Structure formats: structure tokens, C-alpha cells
Write the C-alpha cells for this entry.
Amino acid sequence: MTYLADVGALARKDLTLELRARDTLPAMLLFVLSILVVFHFVLPPESSDLAAKGLLWVGILFTALLGLTRAFAAEREDDAIDGLILATRDRSAIWLGKALAVFVFLALAELVALPAFALFFTDIGGGTIAGVVLADVGLCAVGTLLAAMATASRARELLLPLIFLPLAIPIVVGGVGASVGSHPATYAGFLALYDAIFALLAWASFDYVLTE
Amino acid sequence: MTYLADVGALARKDLTLELRARDTLPAMLLFVLSILVVFHFVLPPESSDLAAKGLLWVGILFTALLGLTRAFAAEREDDAIDGLILATRDRSAIWLGKALAVFVFLALAELVALPAFALFFTDIGGGTIAGVVLADVGLCAVGTLLAAMATASRARELLLPLIFLPLAIPIVVGGVGASVGSHPATYAGFLALYDAIFALLAWASFDYVLTE
Amino acid sequence: MIRARGLEKRYGDRRILRGVEFDLTRGGLLVVTGPNGSGKTTLLRLCVGLATPTAGELAVEVERTRVGFLAHEPLLYRQLTALENLDLYGRLYRIPERRERIGMLLERFGLWDERHTRAASYSRGMLQRLALCRTLLHEPDLLVLDEPFSSLDDEGAALLDRELAERRDRAAFVVATHDPDRVLPLATAKLALG
Amino acid sequence: MIRARGLEKRYGDRRILRGVEFDLTRGGLLVVTGPNGSGKTTLLRLCVGLATPTAGELAVEVERTRVGFLAHEPLLYRQLTALENLDLYGRLYRIPERRERIGMLLERFGLWDERHTRAASYSRGMLQRLALCRTLLHEPDLLVLDEPFSSLDDEGAALLDRELAERRDRAAFVVATHDPDRVLPLATAKLALG
Amino acid sequence: MRPDRLPVFAASALALMASAVAVVAYVAPIDADQGFSQKIFYFHVPVALTSYALFGWGAWKALRHLWKRDERADLESYVAIHLGVIFGLTTLLTGSIWAKISWGRWWVWSSDQLVLFLVLFLFYSAYFMLRFSVEPGPRRANLSAVYALFGVALIPVSFLAIRLSKDIIHPVVFKSSGPDMSGKMFLAFCVSWAAMLALAGTLYHVELAGKRLDQRLKELREVLAS
Ligand code: HEM
Ligand SMILES: Nc1ncnc2c1ncn2[C@@H]1O[C@H](COP(=O)(O)OP(=O)(O)OP(=O)(O)O)[C@@H](O)[C@H]1O
Ligand SMILES: Nc1ncnc2c1ncn2[C@@H]1O[C@H](COP(=O)(O)OP(=O)(O)OP(=O)(O)O)[C@@H](O)[C@H]1O
Ligand SMILES: [Mg+2]
Ligand SMILES: [Mg+2]
């Protein structure tokens, strides 16, 4: 319970920060909406739903990445992360809190993007929505850990896409499968498996990422 | 002349900061390859060249946005921007130097990405290349100004989200039109006009962005 | 509480600390002095566990969350208000009577009227005071203070003197400073680096 | 060189400075004192032009690039080395014999051996020394120093004393400090805020 | 391994290699459709499997580093992954050559199998980026180790992803019912694979010894200097 209280306090802090500074969410929204604009102008009206759905997944992936690159910016400023390291009993709470906050941002961006997508392109079924939610979990779980790693490195934001994209590709495969394939349930199961494995791994190993 | 010397010194500083890692180019290659792999999984095999071109624009937009969101990160850290304000005779040099540096990075990434794209997906014509170059100019000119606003202005919450979206979307529309439309020259002309107007506007107004 | 034997720390090829030895028990105050770049901050970071020694033995018998660390940087979020910052730490440290203690500390350090101001628009001395509030919030058993008097005015320094004296018997202290005279009355041991 | 009459500065609803008046000429040194949050830094930022007064008159008869400002923050790039940082400022200020002067200053402030180290891994005192190098690089006519002795060791402080004394007649000085005794021998005027 | 055993190990690896070449050339039958070029198989597949083995070994060492706080494991893990990437590159190259011969193209995107191997390759290339942009020290060791662990989790997940999407072009020989080839072929394959593993082991120990020597030298120099 006390663990969850820590997580809650940390995630709350991130949401307050975003309300104040509005560094992350506007950029994510802008990006997702511009993608829709690009494809609105590119895709001929009669083109397949498949291509449109694919583009949706590109949008989700990159929007997540955009949010993740900024995830630890506030902690890096003035080494605020050191304060958190000293104050949390279990450092994985820092990971969970941050992943939750990123998840909320991503979900908010999608809450705008998905209806817009449905409006401009094609209907979105239950398979797609399930796929998106499951994929979000995986993206945030893995991405937050990797963002913490990239923050500790000299190359910082440059590094994150390099280490993140290869790990995210199975999510894209699963997500696309869940939204356009003929067996959405199989793909959803695959995504759930991915989420479980990598969330567990990230949770267990986050402590090492923060220690010097 | 001395003005250009300032611009050069400032842009050089950004390049030193970025190239510190020294493996920036291999990193970009990895980045581009990862993105192409993502595209592979997302596009159905029989999808049109147009969709592929659209993805190209999504990639460019994303890379530019990634660069811009962190364009003034180094200056914000420890208020280094104050030092620059005091040291430059004409503050617009700061804008020009930064825009140049962002442009160089974007161009470097595209120099890797465009040939790779042509190799793996579909040919790239002169219209696309002209469109990309012109769009880059516009994105860097406007984006740098807005990024500076987000950094320097104490009232940052107001500005960025409100302005960026309406400003960036014409570039996207023009760029996409130049590479897939039937009248690339018209769109290229539109982009050039946009670049001229907004670069001038940004150059003239940058001073006000930085003063308290 | 702390026992150091043959402590060594390197960064890359450079050896910053070498053969550092000291003992510290409850009620003790170790003053660390030395010229700029002699490794005071590095030693303090080793003590709180934010860095690990490359060789030697360092036994710190305090739980991590019972340590209070005042660093060069305030370790606060600039975009949050004083109250929000302390509330976050109060929650993480699970302080009983969290709100009351925060109010008391803010008042004591003269920040009560500014509790709803973002730390970003605090003056440097006010930030240092806020960082002190954060450090003392959970009544730590081990207090590790890096140049605590820096940028405080006379009143702030006197205040800090009082706070230290008050906790004299309940905690152990490690203080790095360029002005050792300030804490000498309380000091039980001195370590000169560099 | 500077003339202030009825100077006032507000942030939002709060009035930070009010009715500040002083004159400063070449060879003068104005000491600004006051408790934490009394507006010393704010006044200094007004003097260098990084902030604008809300009311009153402030005439600074020095070109912006002839001012040297030492702030609370070092105003340097953490990811660049000492040499790269100074080189950037040397170019922007168009200093004749840029490289030579940089070498001289680094040596004088005891940073020569660390010239290829990134500022990020400097200790706090070393950063303050580097910031002083940046401030003095272009031999400014007006030197505005915000707590310049902060986090310097005894040797560093003595060094800075010498540098100030040496420039005594060539420049004007505004120095904010919590330890006015340190600069009192040179001071020509004193302004107590708050 | 004790350094004096290294030459013996290297010699046996060399002998295995020689016998593998002999078995592949003279014992294994010539393939009916692909002819002689099919013999690349005995190189291509063992190299691919060895690179997986190396990645796995690197992750094992990473786990030891994190779990047992084994100081030397960091270097061992790095060396294993380094070699794994070299073997992976060799897989891509031999695969490409084979692809040019039998499919007429150097690379095909339509095979998810190939693309996923490329993903793994990209993942481990990024390992170097990560490692070399962190200052040497305990933090670098930790980050590298965690990343290496993520790698071994990625391998089976990628496999699953391939199995989900039906692959048409890249052959599958090792089915759940057992290997789909003749006894002689299987023998040749096993000998080649053993040889490849022995080669990898030798290289691993040689590189490790070299790296350790470097480190020792640096420490000695420092002792002398002070
Ligand atoms: C660039 C091109 C290629 C790459 C990157 C590649 C990669 C791989 C990899 C990683 C394996 C390891 C085992 C597995 O994952 O199942 C493998 C196995 C194999 N490859 Fe390739 N390959 C390529 C081209 C080819 C070609 C052109 C052929 C023959 C027509 C071929 C035939 C095989 C066979 C028969 C196996 C064993 C299959 C099994 O494990 O069941 N490969 N390849
Ligand atoms: N992360 C790091 N990487 C490399 N070198 C470092 C790092 N941190 C500190 N150093 C080096 O270690 C030495 C000691 O630094 P430290 O900050 O401990 O000094 P200090 O005694 O606190 O000095 P000051 O009085 O200036 O605060 C310095 O030379 C510094 O350059
Ligand atoms: N950008 C800002 N926005 C709002 N308030 C500000 C801003 N900058 C400073 N203040 C307020 O102005 C007051 C004076 O700040 P200033 O930094 O000038 O104090 P100071 O005298 O330098 O104090 P110290 O000794 O602590 O450095 C403080 O109450 C501070 O909160
Ligand atoms: Mg220090
Ligand atoms: Mg101040």
C-alpha cells in the first residue's frame, strides 16, 4: 500500500508539472494531428483502410517516443532525481510513477487522435482499441526505463530512439495485427504477453539504472 | 560580417555540443534504419507509393519536432541563454545560429534517410527534394522562434501550443503537395513564400522574445 | 553510524579520494574541509549512497530514508511551488502530521508567505532555505550538508545554527564547508582533504 | 556610469524594488546588501539589462557587450569543456588575442590542467572560477557581480580580491554580497535593500 | 579459463573447423534444387545460431553482474555481445549472398524473419551507442547489463512475432517434429555448428584476455606513476 502511495505521489507530481509548464502534451498533440493532416493530403480517398490503420500505428509509436524523450527532463534539471532516489524506499516506484504519467499523456493524445482518425479515415473497431491500450502499456513500461537510461548517458535524447525503436517493433507488429489482422485476439494476447514480460523486467531492473 | 561571425560561433557551439558523442552519424543511420523497419511492418505490402511518401513526411516532421523540442535545452540549463544575450550585439544572431544548427542536423538525418527511403520503398523525384529542403527551412525558422519562446518567456504556458499548430500545418501541407501533388512547382512556390515571410518575421521579432 | 576505511573514489582515470578514514557516531559532527575540487562533495555523495566507492570500506548504518542530504543543487522541482515540493517529499518520507510539519518549517525558515510561489522565482537564498526544509522535513538520523551556509543571510545562518544545535544529540552530521569556524563549536572531528 | 532614480521593479503584484537611487562612476564600487529575497539579484539584473524596471529611471552608459556579469548560475554550457566555453564567449566578444587571454585566465584561476574537462564534472568552486574567467574575459568597463565569493576556497577568494583591486581604476563595480566586510576596503558606496 | 589452456582450446577449435569443412565438402550431399550453393547452409545457420548463443551468454553474464555483483562479468558480457554482433553481421552477409544466388536479390523485405533478425541486429548495435555514451564506472556496467537482459527477452518475443505473421520465403528446417533433413546433412550441420561454437569460444577468451591485460597494464602504470 505504501508503495502505491509513493507511486501516486510521484505520478501526481508529473501531472502538476505538466499542467504548469505544458512542455510535453502540446508537442504530442501537434505531432499526432499533423500526421493526420499529412495523410489526409496523401492518401487518395479510395485507398485501403489498411494503409490508414498502419499510419495510425506510426503516429502512436512516434507520439509515445516524443513524450518519452521529455519524460525525465524535470528530474534532470538541478539533479532533482537525486532527491527522489534518497526519498523512495523502493526505487522502482519512480519508474512506475513516471510510466503512469507518460501513459496518461499518451492516452490523452490518443483521446484526441483516435476520434479525429475515425472522422477523417476509417472506423475504429474494438480490436484496434484493445490493441492501442495494450500497446500503450508496453510502450510506457519499456520506454520509461529506456528514457531513464538515456538520461544517464551523455547522448541523452539522441540515444533514446535508437534503443527504444528495436524494442518497440514487436509492439507495432502486434498492434497492427490486432487492428487489421483476421485474428485480433491472438495479437492482443501477444501484446499482453509482451506487456507482462517487459513490465516485470523493467520493474525488477530499474533500481540498477539509477544507481551510480 | 561580424554579425555572421557571431552566427557562425553560435552554430558551431551547437554542433560541438551535438557531435561531442562523435558517433552521431552512425547513430543517425541506426535511427533511419529503425524507422524504415517500422514502416515495413506498418505498410501493407501492396500499398501505394503515396502512402510511403506520406510516411516519409511523417518521419521528417517527427525528426524536426524532436530536434526542436530540445533545441534550447542546453540554453535553459543554468540560464546559459542569459550569457548569450549579454554577449551578442544583435540578438537575432542567436536565432539564426540556432536555426542553422537545427537545419544542419535535420539535413544530415535526411541525407541518410532519403537515399535509404528511395532504396527500400519508392523513388524520390526532384519535387520531393525541393519540397523537403524548403520545408526544412520553414520548420527550422519558425520552430526555433517558438522553441525560444517556450524557453525564455516567463509566460510560456500561453504561447507555444496556441501558435505552433497553425504555423506548422501549412508547411506540412505544402511539402506533401510538392512531393505528391500534380503541380509541385505551385506548392514549392508556396513553401518558398512561407519561408520568406516567416523567416523575416522570426528574424525581426526574435529580440522581443528574449527580452524580459 | 558511519565507518570509513581506506576509502577511494575514481572518476575514469582520475583518483579523487584516496585513503579516507573516519568514524562517526550519533551526536558526532564531522567537518570536511579542503580547497575547491578536493573531493568534499564526492565524499558526501558516497556517504548518502548516491555514489559508490571504487575501493575501501564504507559502512553506513542508517536506512536510506533516514538520511537528510543538502546538496549544492536544491534537489527540488523549479516549476512546483514550495508547498507542492515539500508535500511530495512529505508523502515519500511518510511523515506523520505532514501538513503541520510543512507549515511549521516554512514558517520557521521565513517562507510561509511565499508558499504558493514556484521555486523557479525564488531568490537563491530562499531556495537554500527551502532545500533546508526538505532536508530537515523527516527529522533524519544522519544529516549530510554540503556548504549549508552558502547564500544564506545572517538571519538564515543563525537559524541554521540553531537547528543544528537543537538536533545535536539526536543525529549525526557530516558538514562540508569553506568556513569551518562557523560549525567548529559543534564539531567532534575534522577531515581535511586535498 | 550608472544613474538610478526612483527605481521600481514588480513581478506581477509584488513590488520587489522601490525607490532605489544611486550613482556610480568609473572607479566606483557599489556594495549591495540585504537579507534573502530583498531584491539584490533583481537590481543587478536591471543594471545589466536582463530585466527592465517597471518605473523610475535607470541610465546605464555602457554598451551591453562591455558589461561583465557574474550571476548565481555560471551561465556556461555544462556539456562543453572550459576551453570551448571560453572560446565561444571570446568569439562573441571579439577579443583580440583570444586564445592567449583564455590561456592566461585559465592558468590564473587554477583551471589550466582541467581545460579539457566538461564543465558538468567540475566541482562547484571550479565552476565559480570558470564563471569568473568568463566575466573578466573581455576586460569589461562595468562589472556586476552577484555573490562573487560564494563557494570559493580561501585561495580563490584571495585571487578574486587581487583581480578586483587590479581593475579598481579602470572599471565600475556593482557587488551584491552577504559578507560586505570582504569588499568594504574597496567600496565607495553602499546600498542596503529590504 | 587459465591463459595457458587457451592455445589448446584454440587448436581444437581449428581442428574442428577443418573437419567441418571436410565433412561439408565431402560427406554432405549436394542439394537437388540449389546445387552447390546450398552448402552455404552449413555456414549460414551455425553462424546465426552462434550469434544467438553469444547474445544469450552475454545476458547470462549481465545477470551475474546484477545479481551476484560479479565485477568481471561486465567485461565478459560486453565481449560476448561484441562477438555476437560480429557473428550477426556475418549472418546478414552470408544470408545476403545466398539470397542473391537463390532469390536473385540481396535483401527482401517481404520476409519478416529477415527483418526481425535485422531488428535484433539494430538492437545490439544500439548497445554500443549506449555503452560508449556513459562514463566508465558502475553506472555504465549496470546500464549495459540491464539492456543486455532486455535483449534476451526480445529474442523469443521476436520469434513469437514471426510465428504470428506467416512467412513464405525464408525456409524453416527445424520443425517441431524434428529437423527436416537427411542424416548426412544433419551430421555435417552438427559438426559445423560445433566448430562455430568453438571458434566463438576461442575468440571470446582471446578478446577477454586482451582486455584484461590492458586493464592490468593501466593499473600498473598508475602504481608506478604514484
Ligand atoms: C539476408 C538474408 C538472410 C538472413 C538475415 C537470414 C537469417 C537467418 C537466421 C537468423 C537464421 C537462424 C535460425 C532461425 O531464425 O530460424 C536462419 C536460418 C536459416 N536460413 Fe537464413 N537468412 C537469410 C537468407 C537465407 C537464404 C537466402 C536462405 C536459403 C534459400 C536461407 C536459409 C536458411 C535456412 C534453411 C535456415 C535454417 C532454418 C531453421 O532454423 O529452421 N537463409 N537464417
Ligand atoms: N561526475 C564526475 N565526473 C568526473 N569528475 C568529477 C565528477 N564529479 C566530480 N569530479 C571531479 O572530482 C573532483 C572533486 O570534485 P568535488 O565536487 O568533490 O570537489 P569539492 O571538494 O566539493 O569542491 P568545491 O569546494 O569546489 O565544491 C573535481 O576535480 C571534479 O572535477
Ligand atoms: N522572475 C521572477 N518572478 C517572480 N518573482 C521573482 C522573480 N525573480 C525574483 N522574484 C522575487 O523577487 C524577490 C527578490 O529576489 P532576488 O533574487 O532579487 O533576491 P536577492 O536579494 O538576490 O536574494 P538572495 O540573497 O537570496 O540571493 C524574491 O522574493 C523573489 O521571489
Ligand atoms: Mg563541492
Ligand atoms: Mg540573489
Observations:
- The interface with chain D takes residues 154 of chain A (CB under 8 Å).
- The radius of gyration of chain A is 17 Å.
- Chain A has one domain: 3-211.
- The mean pLDDT of chain A is 89.
